[in-house]
Amino acid sequence: MRFCPRCGAQTGDLPAVCAACGYAAYLNPRPTGTVIIVRDGRFLAMKRAREPRAGFWDLPGGFCDGFEHPADAAVREAREELGVTVELGEFAGMFVGTYEFQGERLPVLDCFWLATITAGEIALDPDEGSELTWLPLSDPPEMAFSTMDRVLRGSIIRNSSVRLVS
């Protein structure tokens, strides 16, 4: 059962308009920002250390904070998860997907950018990932989320000239 965030009256599933106060509540996708670091026909991936989808290959990225732009979230997430500074390149795509959280299936709006590492040594945050490797763009494995599968199979990624700066 859901309750109105304004007056606390009982409501139905979203979208819903509260019969008591008229407040309209919607189930909007949560935006994310993700980087795709490409080098020599490979992309940098990490194995997820936590649910959802622990043990699956993942790209560095995550949810936007408050009013944070997805591009800024992508840069922040790369710093938090890999310990590096990245420069965003070409926008690679935006896809609607799902994310399982606290027993709910939530809509997400996943935004992807090609990126280049400009500073720092890669140091994987163990809370985020258990393994880090370069995987082939020509035959990527199943990723943690379907939006990642879709962007990695797209023409922008396969034709990318982005290179890792050492």
TrEMBL record:
Source species of the chain: Dactylosporangium darangshiense
Pfam families per UniProt: NUDIX (PF00293)
Domain Nudix hydrolase: start-end pairs: 27-157
InterPro entries according to UniProt: NUDIX_hydrolase-like_dom_sf (IPR015797), NUDIX_hydrolase_CS (IPR020084), NUDIX_hydrolase_dom (IPR000086)
Swiss-Prot/TrEMBL keywords: Hydrolase
Coiled-coil regions, chain positions: none
Superkingdom of origin: Bacteria
Name under which the protein is recorded: NUDIX domain-containing protein
